[in-house]
Amino acid sequence: MMDLRLNSNIWKLFINQLTQKRYYIPILSIFFLTLPDATAKQIGLWSGIGFLSEFLFEIPSGYISDKIGHKKTLILSKIFMLLASIFFVIENSLIYFILGAVFTSLSYASQSGTRPAFLHETLVSLKSEKYFIKTSSKISAKVALLSIPFLIIIPYFAKINIRLPLVLSIIIDVIGLLVVISLI
Question: Nearest 5 degrees, angle CA 8-CA 9-CA 11?
Answer without folding.
Answer: 70
